[in-house]
Design goal:
Length: 386
Amino acid sequence: MNNLIYLDNNATTQVDKRVLDEMLPFFHDYYWNPSSMYSPAGEVAQNLRIARRRIGKLLGATPDEIIFTSCGTESDSTAVYAALAALPEKKHIVTTRVEHPAIMNLYADLETKGYSVTYVPVNREGALDMRVLEESLTEETAIVSIMWANNESGVIFPVERIAEMTAEKGILFHTDAVQAAGKIPIDLSRTRIDMLSISGHKIHAPKGVGALYVRKGLKYSPFLLGGHQEGGRRGGTENVASIVGFGKAGELALEHLEEENTRVKALRDRLERGLTQRIPKAIINGESEPRLPNTSSISFEYVEGEAILLMMDELGICASSGSACTSGSLEPSHVLRAMGIPFTAAHGTIRFSFSIFNTEEEVDFVVEKLPPIIEKLREMSPFWEG
Ligand code: PLP
């Protein structure tokens, strides 16, 4: 497995060894329930506090503004339901056409339960239509939920500016920052964002742990009712080892933020330059917009993304077509469709997503091996005319 070239870090990341080392004692040696009264359990509780402080620091939040959850999806649902419970008379919600299924499917369900939803469109480059967004905000609007950065295109939305707009109108604002955290600077103390979701497995912590930021003083009601864990804001005995790992990963993400925006970004740019120089009709999606430093969505016209993935897989190169959740279906993803990418290009779209563990040698290998793959596939395509 060591020869794999893993360029699918927006799907999930490898747990960092340094994270794993901090987690391991909490499976066997420090197994106590952090809510128990005896002193060894107090040590476990103390490590939860450290993790909460570290995640708070990653986000520019105070520790008591952080609630640990089981994943990004749970954080998203919790935020939306908390807002709707706080403003029960308001039945309108706003989001974008390019959210992750964690938000899309939640809103589709709410539409069957009497809520109306405005889905703000994006343009060909993946940028939000700010005019439609502004016009969609009404007295009826309970919550606006807009992702900080898109998982497929990497395009960054101006959520700090949007939070100003919503705050002035008394509307709650939530952002899904699952892909943004650890890749771009976030300082919630300087924004008017009310709630924010993140997930451990996108920043080299394990799968199955997430966090929700809830701004101090915000009216909040729990999604999971149960024990008094998380200050009564999320029932369920804490996933201690994973939370400890998440805290460490958050600390490391902050330390590596500059590297992410210099070395990792340079790897991404090297890949894009190398591929677009060697492959005709290769389009970088969202190129003119602010983008995550680690993400590249490239459409290779007149080829099937699945075929590219299979041929790269034979060489040990891992990437994805659209998002992990949409690959497997023949339809181009809802994100690519919302961006209006022509059918012939959307089908051949590959997302490459980097992490601090990638190297220049890996990029050069892909730049050498992918052009002949595309050429071969195009030769088989009835639509390709050279
Ligand atoms: N939101 C975005 C933007 C994501 O990319 C993902 C995962 O891919 C999620 C939410 C869901 O996170 P989790 O897998 O932790 O539930």
